[in-house]
Structure formats: C-alpha cells, structure tokens
C-alpha cells in the first residue's frame, strides 16, 4: 500500500502556490510601473534632440533598464528554482509532511494467508510454472480474490499480468481485460493458450467465425448451459466497449447471472490527459461502472503520478483510496520502479559513425556474445545502417535484424519470430519496437544515440531483464549528439525540456542513475520519490552498481576556478558576438579560433548572414581566451545548457535544422560580474566535472584499471560522488587498436553542418555518416508506435515454461531472480579501460 501517494493525492501545497502567486503579482506590478514611466525617446522629443549629455544619459538609462529587465527575469527564475528545491526537500524528508492519513489499526493485510492461499500457490506452479511471487503480486491476487477495487502500479516487466490471470482461474465467471494494443492482446492470449488457460480475444483482428463462436460461448455461460466451460479471460480494446452494442448486450447477460468476475484496465494511465499516453477511448470506460455496478476493477499501470491517479479514479468511478481500507474503498499497491537487475552505463561515443559501431561491436562481443539484445536508434536510416555495419564489422558474429515503421508487417513478424527463436540476436530498432515486446531474456539494451526524452529512455531500456536476471542498459553519448537531439525535438511541444532532461542524464558523470531517474520523475510527473524506494533503501540512496557509482574517481577531473572562469567567458562571448552561434562556433571563438569561425544567421533573421564572420575582442569581453581543450569546452557548454545558462534557438534550412546557443536570463548571474569577481568565487555555485583523457596522470590506462572490493563499493558510492571502481562495457584488444588509430581524429564535422549557410558547410574530411546525423527528416523518425496499433506482433515469454539460456556470467553479480528478491550488490570486475575513454584530438 503506498501511503505517500495517497497523502500526496490528498495534499495541496498551499504555501508554495501562495508564494508563487505573490511573486508573480510583484513582478507584474513592477513591469506595469516601468511601462507607465516615460521612456527616453519621449524625453528626447519633448526636450529637443542634439543635447549630447541628455542623449548619453538616455542611452545609459535604457541600458540600465534593460539590465533591470534581465535581472527581473533572473529573479523570477531563481524564485522558481527555490520553489522546486523546497518541494524536493519536502519530498526527501517525509517528516516535513503532515501526520494526516496515518493507517489506523485493523487494516486488511493482503500479504497474509487466506483460505485460497494453497490453491493460489498450486496454480502458480502448475499453470504458470513459477515457484514464488514477485514483490506485491501475491497481495494483488489476494485483494483481487477478495473482490476489491485495486490500482496496481508496477514497473515495466514487473509481472502485473499475473495479478489478474491467476485469480481469474480461481473465480467463477469471466474476467474482462481492456488493453490498448492488439499486439499486447495477441501476445497475452497466445501465452495463456500455451499455459492451457481458456482465454479469448474479441478485436478487429478476430475472424467472423471465431467471433460467432465466442458470442455463443458467452451466451451459454449466461444461460448456465450444463457442460459449457467458462471463458476465463476475455481481452478487448477500449473501442469494443465504446462501440459494440452486441458486446455490451453479452456483458449485460453475464452480469445478470453474476458471471462478470472483474474488469481489468491495462495501461490505465491512458485514461488521463495528464498521463504520457492519453487515449481518448479510455475515457469512455466510464460506462463500465454505470452499466455493470458491483463488478470490481483492477487498474494496472507502470507510471501513475498522483494527478493521473485522480483522473483514473474519477473516470472509472472508483472510490477514493484511504488507509482505512473499508470494504468499498480502493486498495492501492505499488512496487518500486527501481529495477535492481538493470545496470545503467553511459559510454563515450566516438565522433565518427564507423568508430561508434566498432565500439558497439566490441562491447557486444566482449560482454554479450551469445545474448539477445536490442539496439535502439533514433531514425529508420540509423537502424538500417547500424544493423548492417554491426553484422559486417563483426564478420557475421552479431546477427542483426531491422525493425521500424517502414518494415512490412510480415517482415516484422518474421523478425520477431527469429529473434524469439534466437536466430537473430540483436534487433536494431526505433521506438516502434516497444509495447507488446515481452521477451524475458533480453540481456542488454544499447542506445546508439540519446533518446528524445528520459521517459522514453527509461521505457526502452526497461525492455531488458524482464526475467529479473541481470541485464545491461548502455547509452552511447557524445556532446555533438546534444545538438542533434535538440534539432530533432525543436518542433515538439515540450520537446526541448524533455531533450534537456535526457541530456542532463547523459552528461552527468557523478550522480547515481537511479537517483537521477527518481528525481526526474518526481519533477516532470510529480511522482513521489517513494516510487523509487525499496524495502531496504530510500530513493536517494545510491544504487552502487551504475557507471557513476562504480566510476574510479581518478578518471574524472575538476578544474575548480578554471571551470567557472571558462563558463563566465563562454557566456560573455556568446552575449557579445552579436550573432547566433552554434556550439562549435562558440567554442572556436572563445578558444581564440574566432577568425576561422563563420557565424550563423544574425539576429536580423537571415539578412546578410551568408559570409559574415563572428569576431569578438576576447581580451576586452572575456579577459582572454578559454584555456580548456575542445572536448572540455564542449562539455562545459552542455553543462551550461542543461543548467539553464544557455537557451537554444533554431534555424531551418532545406536540409537541416541548425541549433544555436544563446545566453539566457540566468546567464546574468555570471555575466554581470567581472572576471576578478568570478576568480574570487563570486557568482552562482557552478561546477563541471570532466572525463580525463587517457594517458593523463590518474586516468584509467591500459589494463591497469582500479579494482574495488565489492563489499566496499556501496559505502564508497555513498560517501563520495564517485566510487572506486569504474564500470563500463569495456571492449578489449580490438578496441585498443581501433581507438589508437582514431586518436588524432579531427573534431566531428557534424557540428559544422549546423553552422551558417549551406555554402559555408565544409566537409572537414570526416565520414559522411556524421553529416547525416544532422539532417533531420521527420519522415525518417518513428514518432510513436501508433502504426503498431493494429499489427499482430507475437513474442515469447519467460514464464518458466520456456527454457531460457542462462546468461554467461562474466563478472560477479548477485540477484536472486527466482524469489524476486534482488539484493543491490555492486558489480565488480568491470573497469573503465582507457580505450573506453573517448579520444578526441585537441586542436
Ligand atoms: N512470479 C514470477 N516469477 C517469475 N517470472 C515472472 C513472475 N511473474 C511474472 N513473470 C515474468 O515476468 C515477465 C513480465 O511479466 P508481465 O508481462 O506480466 O509484466 P508487466 O508488468 O505486464 O510488463 P509491461 O508493463 O511491460 O507489460 C513475463 O515474462 C512473466 O512471465
């Protein structure tokens, strides 16, 4: 039972809202006031032009007013940040919350024993082949058999289906399951048939004859025809409920003879417009309670923040959840969204297309040679080329397949079958390969590029390890991809914020990945941190087994005041350039390479932009040039972007979307200061940590990586922001050779493509593949899996009946998958090798 969620649902944060309203009112009044005052131009007209002193005073006043405006915007931003921080602190320290809603004595403990417990365990083993329940599965089954209204929130692959499939076998009548996707329905029914369960589906894909047979059986159930077995589970889409009178009539008849056992709403967050997957047809499910009162609900979801929960309960007509658990109230179960068996790592991605495929090939061959995996790509073209290159560069050792919206349905099904059977090992796919894919033994999910949002990344990577055993979730990242993801999302509502959150995650070298997820969902979806709490640890305890928890501290470097000064310089240069600058141009200019940097379009919207160069007097504006390497300077730009000091602007050409960095209102926190102030620690707290280059003192080198005793990992991870041992999927000898060859590679041309006009776009001698990265063609993206809505995917299920190949254990990992109780034991033996550290030349 999730008490925090219920409290949150009840509680309105009045103080924070009041503070924000006061602030907005104050800001409004001050802006109104300045609007009413006569401006300098008015003064000039009244007093006559020509007085130099007056004009200069007017100019100065105008300048100061501009600064005040900037500072007011900054003030508003800071207060907003303060509000957010206050909310986070309250979340993290539940003692700040009221004691309201404490559970009174006398709750029904659904984790206990009931008269049906023996039968439940018997069916668990004989029908589903499992020895034990995972987390709150047993409690859900018990509340289900007790005919309660239930909301169950469990992560992707957490085992939600068992919560209704098992009780359906022990309950008279038919359980009606409403699910959004035909692919999901077909998959579930297939597996139930394999297990010998009498399940049917009534969808557009069901043949007329089959439909007639099903209606006859429902009629026989309603008539109590002797010898006619019950349909235990009937799967439909929400449209069936909304549109089919015949089906509603059949349900009516079942209801009259008490043979309608339960309504199960799968992916129940689709009910809410505030959820991430709103489906209008889900709102029509409000008729269920009106037409067939007394039939209990089970609403299932992997993501259900308080606001979505409110919508869900209202729409379905379910009672408010309380702690008292009176008989007609809704019971809420939630398990941690943190999956301990998933090991997250962000790996440096070489700047060339071939280099990144070589890295990926080495990673897969070293750590997952015979395993099943998925490589997620951003575009359809990427899928094709990554699949082909992986196969070619591994001499066929990695058997790949391609899955995206343009692949014909028959081919998709064939690929899915081959993947299930192990004939294809790695599917290179867009996000179209998502819902309905339930293969338990996916041992790794690699992201070839950043996802467009952290929500997407969480879901996609969550396809790994559904059988509860260890699996790797690897993201390849380079700073240039930051600009690519920005250009791809620039036309989407809220796309920029999502992309920036993804970028913040990818570029963070210190914070534990679990904590990052928890804080992201807390902020973006107002989901309580408690969703990432486990029985042993709260959400803010480091996991101890992601790359950032396992990273050797001496592979990172902090440059202290040099970083702050460089940040100040970058912001000053960007503000003074008088033109929009791409990240590459800004880095060039700030590092004293301005004469070669062609500028992007001027503020005058394209006028005369073709050949103009941006030049800045670095000594005057920035007290000299930025004294950092190119890769450090780019990493710093990304940091400044994710922390809100830069904003992005876009320029569309026929071939690409160019992305420019501009100082935001927040930048004034730095730029209003002098260099001396910044050197003496003035300005906002700001830091950026960098990956050390291989070969530098302290950087991981050769095979001499730091090893850490496993039992100490967690403690170290907690004590410091980076613990003693590095963890990445380290390619071995082959990578060493190839990375050496790339050591002198020039900077990627990809960022040049984003600059200026086409005639300025020079090929810097780099692979064409990198050029392609910046050509944004929406037609090449799989925006969502709508096209899958009516395709008939099939998949295999690791239900204990299928024999699964035990993954080859290459390093000590501990998880007790069988019992579903996973212990957070840090992995050991994987360390960052120097060939894993991206090798970019400095100029
Ligand atoms: N008690 C259990 N023991 C072992 N495996 C289990 C258990 N319960 C479920 N599983 C397996 O876990 C996998 C995921 O289960 P299920 O499809 O129900 O997850 P889900 O929560 O519905 O995920 P999604 O939200 O992605 O649909 C399946 O392969 C299933 O066979």
Automatic annotation (TrEMBL):
Keyword Metal-binding appears in the UniProt entry: yes
Domain Helicase ATP-binding: 141-322
Biased composition (Low complexity): 718-741
InterPro entries documented for this protein: DEAD/DEAH_box_helicase_dom, DNA/RNA_helicase_DEAH_CS, DNA_helicase_ATP-dep_RecQ, Helicase_ATP-bd, Helicase_C-like, P-loop_NTPase, RecQ_Zn-bd, WH-like_DNA-bd_sf
CDD domains the UniProt entry points to: SF2_C_RecQ
Name of this chain's protein: ATP-dependent DNA helicase
Keywords assigned by UniProt, alphabetized: ATP-binding, Coiled coil, DNA-binding, Helicase, Hydrolase, Isomerase, Metal-binding, Nucleotide-binding, Nucleus
Family: Belongs to the helicase family. RecQ subfamily.
The Helicase C-terminal domain, residue ranges: 359-506
Top EC class, one word: isomerase
Places the protein is found: Nucleus
Biased composition annotated in UniProt, kind: Acidic residues: 757-771, 779-788
Region feature Disordered, mapped onto this chain: 1-51, 695-843
Taxonomic superkingdom: Eukaryota
Organism encoding this protein: Dichomitus squalens
GO terms (BP aspect): double-strand break repair via homologous recombination
């Amino acid at each position: 039972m999730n008490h925090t969620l219920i409290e949150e649902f009840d509680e309105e944060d009045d103080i924070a809202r009041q503070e924000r309203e006061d602030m907005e009112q104050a800001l409004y009044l001050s802006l109104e006031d300045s609007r009413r005052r006569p401006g300098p131009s008015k003064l000039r007209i009244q007093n006559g032009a020509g007085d130099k002193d007056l004009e200069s005073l007017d100019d100065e006043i105008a300048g100061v007013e501009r600064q005040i405006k900037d500072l007011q915007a900054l003030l508003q931003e800071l207060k907003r940040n303060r509000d957010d921080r206050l909310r986070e602190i309250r979340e993290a320290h539940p003692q700040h919350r009221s004691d309201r809603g404490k559970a009174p004595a006398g709750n029904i403990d659904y984790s206990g024993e009931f008269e049906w417990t023996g039968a439940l365990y018997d069916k668990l083993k004989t029908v589903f082949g499992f020895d034990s329940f995972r987390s709150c599965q047993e409690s859900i089954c018990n509340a289900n058999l007790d005919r309660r209204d239930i909301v169950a929130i469990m992560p992707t692959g957490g085992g939600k289906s068992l919560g209704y499939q098992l009780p359906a076998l022990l309950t008279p009548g038919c359980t009606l399951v409403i699910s959004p996707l035909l692919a999901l329905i077909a998959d579930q029914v297939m597996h139930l048939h394999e297990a010998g369960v009498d399940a049917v589906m009534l969808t557009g894909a069901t043949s007329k004859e089959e439909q007639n047979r099903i209606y006859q059986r429902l009629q026989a159930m309603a008539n109590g025809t002797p010898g006619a077995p019950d349909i235990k589970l009937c799967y439909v889409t929400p449209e069936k409920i909304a549109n089919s009178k015949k089906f509603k009539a059949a349900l009516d008849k079942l209801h009259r003879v008490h043979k309608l056992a339960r309504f199960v709403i799968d992916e129940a967050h689709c009910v809410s417009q505030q959820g991430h997957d709103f489906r209008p047809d889900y709102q029509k499910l409000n008729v269920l309670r009106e037409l067939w009162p007394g039939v209990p609900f089970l609403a299932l979801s992997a993501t259900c923040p308080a606001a979505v929960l409110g919508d869900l309960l209202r729409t379905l007509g379910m009672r408010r959840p309380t702690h008292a658990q009176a008989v007609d109230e809704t019971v809420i179960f939630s398990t941690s969204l943190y999956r301990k068996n998933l090991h997250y790592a962000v790996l440096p991605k070489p700047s060339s297309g071939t280099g990144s495929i070589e890295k990926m090939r080495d990673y897969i061959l070293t750590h997952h040679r015979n395993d099943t995996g998925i490589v997620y790509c951003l575009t359809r073209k990427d899928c094709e080329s990554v699949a082909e290159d992986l196969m070619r560069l591994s001499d066929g050792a990695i058997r790949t397949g391609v899955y995206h919206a343009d692949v014909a349905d028959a081919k998709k099904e064939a690929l899915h079958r081959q993947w299930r059977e192990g004939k294809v090992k790695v599917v290179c796919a867009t996000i179209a390969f998502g819902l309905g894919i339930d293969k338990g033994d996916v041992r790794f999910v690699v992201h070839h590029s950043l996802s467009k949002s952290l929500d997407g990344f969480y879901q996609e990577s969550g396809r790994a390890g559904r059988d509860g055993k260890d699996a790797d979730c690897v993201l390849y990242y380079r700073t240039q991809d930051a600009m690519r993801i920005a250009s791809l999302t620039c036309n989407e509502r809220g796309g920029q914020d999502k992309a920036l959150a993804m970028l913040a995650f990818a570029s963070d070298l210190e914070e534990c990945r679990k904590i990052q997820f928890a804080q992201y969902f807390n902020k973006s979806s107002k989901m309580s941190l408690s969703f990432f709490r486990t029985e042993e640890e709260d959400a803010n305890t480091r996991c101890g087994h992601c790359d950032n928890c396992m990273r050797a501290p001496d592979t990172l470097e902090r440059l202290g005041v040099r970083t702050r000064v460089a940040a100040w310089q970058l912001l000053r240069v960007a503000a003074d350039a008088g033109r929009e600058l791409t990240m590459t141009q800004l880095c060039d200019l700030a590092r004293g390479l301005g004469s070669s940097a062609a500028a992007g379009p001027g503020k005058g919207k394209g006028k005369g932009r073709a050949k103009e160069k941006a030049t800045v007097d670095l000594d005057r504006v920035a007290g000299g040039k930025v004294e950092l390497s190119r890769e450090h300077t780019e990493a710093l730009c990304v940091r400044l972007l994710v922390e809100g000091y830069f904003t992005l602007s876009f320029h569309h050409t026929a071939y690409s979307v160019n992305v420019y960095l501009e100082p935001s209102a927040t930048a004034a926190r730095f730029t209003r200061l002098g260099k001396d102030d910044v050197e003496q620690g003035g300005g906002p707290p700001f830091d950026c940590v960098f990956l050390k280059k291989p070969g530098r003192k302290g950087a991981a080198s050769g095979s001499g990586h730091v090893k850490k005793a496993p039992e100490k990992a967690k403690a170290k991870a907690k004590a410091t922001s980076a613990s003693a041992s590095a963890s990445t999927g380290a390619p071995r000898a082959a990578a060493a050779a190839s990375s050496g060859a790339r050591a002198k590679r020039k900077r990627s041309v990809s960022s040049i493509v984003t600059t200026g006009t086409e005639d300025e776009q020079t090929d810097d001698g780099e692979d064409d593949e990198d050029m392609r990265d910046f050509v944004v063609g929406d037609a090449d993206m799989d925006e969502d899996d709508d096209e899958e809505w009516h395709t008939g995917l099939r998949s295999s299920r690791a239900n204990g009946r299928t024999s699964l190949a035990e993954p080859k254990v290459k390093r000590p990992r501990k998880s007790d998958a069988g019992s579903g109780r996973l212990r957070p034991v840090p992995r050991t033996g994987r360390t960052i090798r120097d060939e894993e550290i991206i090798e970019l030349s400095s100029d």
